[in-house]
Amino acid sequence: MSDQRKKITLADQTETEARAREIQLLINIAEPDPEYQPFITTDDASLLDSVGTAPADIQRRLEAYFGEPVTIPLTTPLWRFVDMIRERRPEWPEDM
Predict the structure, then answer these.
(1) Computed from CA positions of residues 71, 33, 51, 16, in that sequence, does the dihedral angle turn out positive or negative?
(2) Distance CA 86, CA 36 (A)
(3) Would you say the C-alpha torsion 27, 70, 81, 19 has a positive or negative sign?
(4) pTM above 0.85?
């Protein structure tokens, strides 16, 4: 019987803290009211999993924040979403 489990690689603490801030920033954009924000999100959670905001509203808010169309699917896990933003905007979020 083969071992089908995923190999877990721990990220550097500095990277983890930066990623947590970036994910919180995305959640703040998608749902500005802290009362409706999640207390915790998982590695596989997307913006649609994390907030109850309508997808069209999330898209509109992201595009207003970034000043351009955001073509990343809202179903993308948040860690990957951050990676994809960084690929397009390496200085984000400092450049905002």
Answers:
(1) positive
(2) 26
(3) negative
(4) no
pLDDT for the residue 17: 83
Neighbouring CB atoms inside 10 A of 86's CB total 14
Cβ(69)–Cβ(88) under 8 Å?
A: no
CB proximity list for 73: less than 8 A, separation 6 or greater: none
Which pLDDT score is estimated for 56? 97
Block residue for tokens 């997307």: 46
In which residue ranges of the chain is pLDDT below 50?
1
**Paired residues of 46 in beta bridges:** 77
β-partners of residue 77 are: 46
